[in-house]
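Entry 14. Ran structure prediction on the chain below.
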Amino acid sequence: MRSFLLLLYLCFSVAVSANEWLPETKEPTIKILFIGNSLTYTNNLPKLVKAHAKTKGIKIKTRMVALPNYALEDHWNDGNIQQLIATGGYDYVIIQQGPSSQQEGRDILIDYGKKYAALCNKHNARLAYFMVWPSLKYYHTLDAVIKNYQDAATINNAIILPVGMTWKEHHNSSKRNDYYGIDGFHPSLKGSKAAAATIVSSLF
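Output, structure tokens:
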């Protein structure tokens, strides 16, 4: 009996010792590259996305390339984002430009989106369109903004992050403009937080 108990103790000790040496499992960090303009860098949207994801138990790391009044073609023609996508090991590349309710903006969303999509596919990243919104002055064009971003995402087999639809739903239900900042175009902090929540829920 004593021999059996001793053997059982030794087996238990070995098992515990082995477990102590097992490497700790860590949640993977998801890497996201944001490419856009002032609608992205106002209120530091990537930081808000990271914070909101953390509340869901999702760990992400972000990088932002955003310049005033830039469209997708401007970033592409600068030639910097190609290297970032090729070497950054990103899981998602999120792109946006201005509202793009007119034909020229629609064409850029689709045509340059195709270039981004091909580059992302080559480097195992998923492309996502951050659907934006028009200024209050041109709020009546929001449906065209929504359609053009949705079409571009569908054509280029990309994810749509429907922030513009979140904007519309809030505006229509509350009859308030509090997602807009003081200039009537850039987002308030409340608007940026709503955008971050929409992005996280759409990606994860």
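The first strand starts at residue 30 and ends at 36. Will compare against last week's run tomorrow.
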